[in-house]
Write a structure and sequence with these properties.
Helices cover 81% and strands 0% of the residues. The chain has 118 residues and is mostly helical. Its main location: mitochondrion.
Length: 118
């Protein structure tokens, strides 16, 4: 058995073993989401809500072009905007760490060793 076939066989066996628990957990998550959806009275947005959001966004973009708009913003609003930006950046960093599976940088050594095989 060559290495590729052996790897594929192992991966298939592992996926088969995990399929039961994964399906169970997916069904449980679906039921919980359904209960939250019903209990919170959630519903997809209506066409009127979409139109309202569109108009608000267009108004924001139009107002943002005016220098007077920025002069009328209070110090507290600037601080609040900075905190929201810092929070968004923190979420981005956490996503990067999860994506790399490492706190600092990417595993360059593994990428270099892969290039040697080609």
């Amino acid at each position: 058995m060559n290495a590729l076939t052996k790897t594929l066989t192992t991966a298939t066996q592992t996926a088969t073993k995990l399929s039961g628990p994964v399906m169970y957990n997916a069904k449980v998550a679906g039921q919980i989401a359904k209960q939250v959806y019903i209990r919170e009275g959630m519903a997809p947005p209506s066409a009127a809500q979409f139109e309202s959001a569109k108009q608000a966004t267009l108004k924001f973009v139009k107002d943002a072009r005016s220098a007077n708009t920025w002069k009328n913003i209070s110090k507290e609003q600037y601080i609040q905007a900075g905190l929201v930006a810092a929070e968004a950046y923190a979420f981005f960093l956490v996503g990067e760490i999860v994506g790399r599976r490492n706190f600092i940088g990417y595993d360059v050594k593994a990428a270099d060793s892969h290039a040697e095989h080609h």
